[in-house]
Amino acid sequence: MTGVTGVTDVLVVAPHPDDDVIGCGGSIAKHVRDGARVTVVIVIGRERSALDDAVSDAEFAAETEAAAKALGVHRCIRFEEPSRDFALTRRVHLDLVRVLREVRPQVVYLPHDNDDDVEHRMVHQLTVEALWMAQSEFFQETGGRPMPAPRLVLGYEVWAPMARFQYAEDIGGQIETKVEAMRAYVSQLRHAAWDEGIRGLARYRGAVSAGSGHAEVFQVLSLGAAPAAGPAGGGRD
């Protein structure tokens, strides 16, 4: 799975609720299938719109929990940072360092570095910096020991499909689980047919990387172990 054997802990950092499902939901389900514990951190809280204003915060939280349950996520942590007022403060960096030092993941997922949404790019920057901080001997106020470097750090796509990717993961066995998790976000489907969109993108990525099937593709940001073979014809750079 994703080029690393013996994975016990995975951390997914998502800017907003449902970004984890869209970007790497199939890979999450695959990690769970293989026995890993997956922790998801959702950095920014809900942004209400006229299309879902009638949905209460409790109902929206239940959607998030249902999506996580569908994928088999071990724990979902919500920072509830303010949307559009989100700032890369020391506090939010330390919040993520605490999680990293507790989970000590072998694999980390985060938004790729050139996504169209500015908050996605900010969360990319946040995670890259927090990874360094969590491995250092500093920032002792977070508690815990410095964590070892993850063996694999992957950037996923949400708003802006990547022009170039270095790794493709076959999610043919997980595509229905991914779609089911997306459909748990009933309020978000009022904005766009995300369930159809993620199925179509996975089908396209499967065709490009392996000739058929369904896949998720990733930017390889750090590689600490030799990758196993991905799908035939699998990523390119």
Automatic annotation (TrEMBL):
Coiled coil: none
Keywords: Zinc
The organism's place on the tree of life at top rank: Bacteria
InterPro entries tied to this protein: GlcNAc_PI_deacetylase-related, LmbE-like_dom_sf
This protein's name: PIG-L family deacetylase
